[in-house]
Design a protein that fits this description.
This protein is α/β, with parallel strands linked by helices. It has eleven helices and ten strands. Helix 1 packs across helix 2 (about 25-35), helix 6 packs across helix 7 and helix 8 (about 210-220) packs parallel to helix 9. The longest helix has 18 residues, at about 270-285. The chain starts with 11 loop residues before the first helix and ends with a helix. About 30% of the residues are buried.
């Protein structure tokens, strides 16, 4: 007998092993996705739900760790699937269905491409985003690419180095950074975006929290709006993105650059950031961003 460990962080190794042993490609992919381990943390659960979760885990062969108000479950996706089905969910765990269903759907069939304003970013590999700060005070490269010709030269270097999306920012959002006037931010980013679009360097993203800046950048050729505030700063930004049909990147930040450091207090940083990003995604969907 020969025993070989397979990589479990993606379904690929299991899929390849099944295909090599005669499975068709699609069934092999679904089976590999189903047996891949998945860890999910559940928050704001009641004591009764904790008890029901532990009972289910013992029967299903899942690892369940719990504390007051939370539960951590580790199991194959196929073991978790019944919790997302209304006709099979155990009594006491009915509230899990919708959210867990969305997690499992994304786990089983992650998107293979991002369609943005007539352009496409392929997602079957890690995508490198090139950051192009046209600001005098960004913490990493402030002042280096303020001139349009220098910004274009840097963009060409980023593309040559493998970047597949160029993100142009005209306002520093480092901790403690002062706010920039809208007109100044537009004057910084629009000439650069226009030249990038003219040279077909991109797709191009504009890094802004503000609707007027996004509107001007989109008119200049931006296909994505990257909001560090997750659509929570300017209520007019969401309809601008939705109406233009461009892509959106939602970042996590509490407060503003002036206050973000004082608000960065977390009990469970990964779970809390994920939850707040989920709220940002919900804002986008409710506002018509697809």
């Amino acid at each position: 007998m020969k025993v070989t460990a397979l990589a479990a962080h993606t379904p690929e190794a299991v899929r390849a092993a099944l295909v090599a042993r005669g499975w068709d490609a699609q069934p092999a992919w679904f089976a590999a996705s189903g047996v891949r381990p998945l860890a999910v943390i559940l928050e704001d659960i009641t004591d009764a739900e904790r008890e029901a979760l532990v009972h289910w885990g013992a029967k299903a062969g899942a690892d369940v760790l719990t504390g007051v108000g939370w539960g951590l479950v580790v199991a194959a996706a196929s073991r978790l699937a019944p919790l997302a089905r209304p006709d099979r969910v155990p009594a006491g765990l009915e509230r899990l269905g919708a959210d867990l269903g969305r997690v499992l759907a994304a786990h089983a069939e992650p998107p293979q491409a991002w369609e943005i304003a007539g352009q496409q970013v392929v997602l079957d590999h890690p995508v490198i985003v090139g950051i192009l700060n046209v600001t005098p005070d960004s913490f990493s490269d402030g002042g280096r690419f303020v001139a349009v010709d220098r910004a274009i030269a840097q963009a060409e270097r980023l593309i040559a180095d493998g970047c597949e999306l160029l993100d142009v920012g005209g306002e520093s959002t480092r901790p403690g950074a002062a706010a920039v006037a809208v007109d100044d931010e537009i004057a910084r980013v629009v000439p650069v975006i226009e030249q990038l679009a003219r040279r077909r360097l991109g797709p191009i993203s504009v890094d802004t929290r503000r609707a007027p800046v996004a509107r001007a950048a989109i008119a200049a050729g931006a296909a994505v709006v990257n909001d560090v505030a997750g659509l929570a700063f300017d209520p007019e930004l969401t309809p601008v993105v939705a109406d233009a049909g461009v892509g959106a990147i939602l970042m996590h930040m509490r407060g503003t650059p002036d206050t973000m450091d004082s608000l960065a207090t977390y009990r469970h940083v990964a779970a809390e950031v994920a939850a707040e990003l989920g709220q940002a995604a919900a804002r986008a969907e409710q506002g018509g961003v697809e």
